[in-house]
Amino acid sequence: MESKEIRIPTLEQIEAELQREQYKNRYGRVLRSTVFSLLVVAAVAVIIAVLVFPVLQISGTSMTDTLQDKDIVVAMNSSDYTTGDVIAFYYNNNILVKRVIAVTGDWVDIDEDGNVFVNGEMLDEPYISEKAFGDCNITLPYQVPDEKVFVMGDHRATSIDSRNTAVGCIGSELVVGRILFRVWPLGGIGAVK
Fold it and tell me: How far apart are CA 193 and CA 63, in angstroms?
């Protein structure tokens, strides 16, 4: 029977192996920590994007010249809207974007030339390029019901909005948020007014 010689590692070999094991342990801890941190940051970003600052892509032309088809905007979840704010809201499983014209209790009237009056005063609307009476089947003057807002698109001739009973006034429970910024296209980045 042959005897095998047992080799005892040298001190340098033991130290080198110990350093390799310590490096693997540190590498594993750093990798796990990094992955965990990235997952937490991604989860927080998703929660903020969905609940606080929704990101939306504009589809359609009812808000031209203010917003164009395919623009990407950021909204802020809020329940405080004033005349002139641009808001996004749910309608028939879609998200529409329109401008707040009047709030609870206000009286809205529109003449045949498309001039809009709120509580008897004509609105100054520098954001529209062409006035139009549009698709209106409500009885004017119209009083905005409690807890609702009256909205209109900036492209008045084509927009279907609160002037039509198909959309009507918007309840706060349907509002996604107030549009704050356009983030795409790059040439149009800035606040939405």
Answer: 12
Report residue 8: phi and psi, to 5°.
Answer: -90, 125
The residues that bridge with 150 in the sheet, in sequence order, are 102
Number of helical (H) and strand (E) elements in the chain, helices listed first: 1, 12
Cis preceding-peptide flag for 185 (omega within 30 of 0): yes
Q: The whole model's pTM is what?
A: 0.68
Structure tokens at 112: 């045949």
Among 169, 168, 170, 163, residue whose Cα is nearest residue 110: 163
Angle made by CA atoms 167, 171, 175, in degrees to the nearest 5: 90
Q: What does R_g of the chain's alpha carbons equal in angstroms?
A: 30
Residue indicated by tokens 């709030």: 103
User: 186 pLDDT exceeds 80?
Assistant: no
**Phi then psi dihedrals of residue 13, to 5 deg:** -65, -40
Q: Which of 116, 118, 135, 136 is nearest to 126 (CA)?
A: 116
Say which residue the tokens 């600052």 belong to. Answer: 53
Q: What is the mean pLDDT of residues 91-96?
A: 83
Is the per-residue pLDDT at 1 higher than 60?
A: no
AA letter at 51: L
